[in-house]
Amino acid sequence: MNPTQFTTAQVAPPAGGAALDEVIIAVVMAFAVIIPLMVFVIRERAGKPTVLGRLADKVAELDGLPRWVGLPIYLLLLACVTGGIGVYWDVPIHMEIGRDEGPLANPSHYPIYFALLGIFASGVISATLARRRLPLRTFRIGPAWRVPLGAIVIMTCGIVGVAGFPLDDMWHRLFGQDVTEWGPTHVLMIGGAVLSPIGIMLLLAEARQVGAPGAAGRAGRLWGAFLGGIWVTTITAFLMEFELGVPQFPFLNQVVLVSLATTWAFVYARMKFGAGGALLAVAVYLALRSLLYVVVVPFDLTPSPFLPYLGAAVLVELVAAVIPPARGYRFGAASGLAVGTLGVLAEWPMTQWFMPQSWPAAMIGKFMVFGTVAAVAAGLAAVWQVHRLDEIGTRTVSTPRPGSRWRKAHALGLAGALGMVGVMWVVVPPDDPSGISGELQVTETSTARELHRDLNAGEQPRWAKLAVKLEPADADADLNWLSVVSWQGGDFFNTPMVKGADGVYRSTASVPVYGSWKTGIRLHTGNNMMAAIPVYMPLDPEIDAPAVAAESGTRAFGPEHELLQRERKTDVPEWLWTAGYVTVGVVWFAAWILWAFFYVVAAAGRSTGTASAGVQQPRSQPAEPTPSA
């Protein structure tokens, strides 16, 4: 059954894991990448000619980077763009059409899957091509095989992302479908791509250390600005649900992630490129986001709007004019202070113009407080990263000693990392409502809104205006939004509700209450309280969910995830939920810790193997050609 043909009269798509035949097909697809990759590794390490080896040598002649840097980076960037197209294609499908028939029934899953395999393959290719002109500190795989640490970071990113696919299927089998971008296994898949620019940055620093002209001078500076734009683009991929108008986590998450991403990326770009680096980075971001915006247009799906971040980029440049980036942590902290205050203020009108749910003016003060904490922490982390990369990029690697020198090098960077984790820990978890109800009034209208597609052809359309009076009367204190959300009927609507003089909130347009549509009212107040009431829900026998009729009456607000994530199982033991979240969380944080560890190892004089600058490789392996500028 094609998901675009779904109606309430048909059997709903499955809500559990993939069928066995689809699992087998996915495994075959993985081996279609892995087996040729293994053949390449065996031949290349044996000193035999390979297509990728010849291509890497040609690329090295053009870009001035070592053969183990240039080609792998370009393949990785291509994989990231491919994965981004898949993600920005996938989320609107779930919003407008519904859950998948199976993992392979959704065409958007193919570019995501192959992109994650491509990220892993890029790391393997880099490690395989590494023979001569290696950095001082490497990862030892075998007696005569030492690998740049950047290649290991990239491989790890790919492993984390690819692991998300089987874990996601297991998650659906245990807990039901978790149709949210921030579902734990989805964080792994998206996070694998998000973290990959960190590996590129490390790989380029190692290339600079071995004297590659393509990683130094003007070329190296351009890479710094370009990767700053890539970095802010990947981090803010986690904000897609906010951009599409169906965020499933508190509003403060958007503010904190915007402040964190822009400060880190633009401080990095400004320090690596010099004057104008932050502006070049935001230009790269705008170009990439424009591409991802239009990619879903041919499929007649809702494109994802985005904030321009111009204010943050300009502020970082202005701070650099007063506090030189050579001042290090002072520059990072001052940039964070500017972005968290004036930068948040500059984004406020942008949200009014571009975002489905704009930032409330009454909440700007609170947003600036949380934004400042996140931005200052990110500024410190960015400076720590740049300092380590600059140390790696030199041929002289110092040995760290206990005491003030070590604390000076790492204490503020660690404080920034803990600050980012701490502020996210505070703003991420939503709180459930307590004792809030609404007197709902449903008034049918003859006004129907234009649809991208109609999944309910042949059924009698029913559209209605909604009104709700909250109880208690102060239930809307510190209001972030009160809106009607309608999804999975062939389109998606996020309809604001406006409060009248009588204290009643009314929808600004008619909403659908028939067929496969799901419609509910969402309430978000304070820092974390998120609640919802269903207005209309179709019968869904696959998950044993009853129909909810669109009728007037009093309804109690419940936790919002019970509305938006209707497919989640309710009979799963609490300990199993806890174990699932802890397992995924350990994998995610281990990837971050590994990244930081390799940066410290590469810069601080310790080695995961033997220093490889003078290691003689087997004579059967041809020498790497010296690239030209």
- Overall morphology: globular
Overall mean confidence score, pLDDT: 86
Which segments are poorly predicted (pLDDT under 50) over 5 or more consecutive residues? 1-11, 606-629
Tell me the fraction of residues in β-strands, as a range: 5-15%
Secondary structure: helix percent: 40-55%
State the end-to-end CA separation.
56 Å
Structure classification: alpha+beta
Number of helices in the DSSP assignment: 16
Backbone CA Rg:
26 Å
Order of helices and strands: HHHHEEHHHHHHHHHHEEEEEEEEEEHH
Biggest beta sheet summary: 10 strands, antiparallel
Number of domains: 2
Number of DSSP E strands: 12
Task: Outline the structure in words.
This protein has 629 residues and is α+β, with helices and mostly antiparallel strands. It folds into 2 domains: 435 residues, no CATH class; 120 residues, Immunoglobulin-like (Sandwich), CATH 2.60.40. Strands 3, 4, 5, 6, 7, 8, 9, 10, 11 and 12 form a 10-stranded antiparallel β-sheet that branches. Strands 1-2 form a two-stranded antiparallel ribbon. A hairpin with a 3-residue loop joins strand 9 and strand 10. Helix 4 packs antiparallel against helix 5 and helix 5 runs antiparallel to helix 16.
Short description:
By secondary structure, the protein is an alpha+beta fold. The protein has helices at residues 20-45, 51-63, 70-96, 109-129, 149-175, 184-209, 217-235, 240-244, 252-273, 277-294, 310-322, 329-354, 364-392, 404-427, 560-564, 574-604; strands at residues 138-142, 145-148, 437-445, 463-471, 479-487, 492-499, 505-507, 511-512, 518-525, 529-536, 553-556, 558-559. It is globular, with a radius of gyration of 26 Å.
